[in-house]
Amino acid sequence: GISLISDTTFMALTFILRKLLAFLLLGAIFARAVHRRSASPRGRWLAAGGCLLVAAGVAVLIEVGQVVNLEHTPDLSDAMVGAIGAAIGIAVTVRLLPHEGGSTAEP
After folding, report:
1. Beta strand ranges found along 1-107 (DSSP E)
2. Measured between alpha carbons, how far is residue 13 from residues 3, 18, 36, 47, 81 in Å?
3. Please, are residues 67 and 74 in contact by the beta-carbon 8 Å criterion?
4. What's 96's DSSP letter?
5. Do the Cβ atoms of 9 and 74 come closer than 8 Å?
């Protein structure tokens, strides 16, 4: 977990950035996997919501797993950082992937 009392601010920021990046990539992978299965824009965003739920579940499971590991402290904020990273990865991926017409989304 993140403990600004015992760790330096730099270490805490590094940890947050690493977790954000890891879950950003996980979210992008999930979004890419379900993107082509949804033909409509609404379907793509509903699938993205499902991806976010799964990614957030993974983040929570990682924290729950830390209950039995005495070297780590489970922390809800860690799961939230993971979910935020996944949400960013999913949103960017859904927005940038080409749609059925072969072009990227309009701004």
Report:
1. none
2. 11, 9, 35, 31, 11
3. yes
4. H
5. no
Q: Helix 41-65 vs helix 76-96: angle between axes, to the nearest 10 degrees?
A: 150
Distances (CA, A) of 46 to 3, 11, 37, 42, 94: 35, 36, 11, 6, 11
Q: Is the pTM of this model over 0.70?
A: yes
User: Could you read off the pLDDT of 11-58 as tens digits, one per residue?
Assistant: 878 889 999 999 999 999 998 888 777 667 788 778 889 999 999 999
CA distance to 16, 27, 41, per residue, from 80 (Å): 10, 14, 27
Whole-number Å distance between alpha carbons of 48 and 6: 37
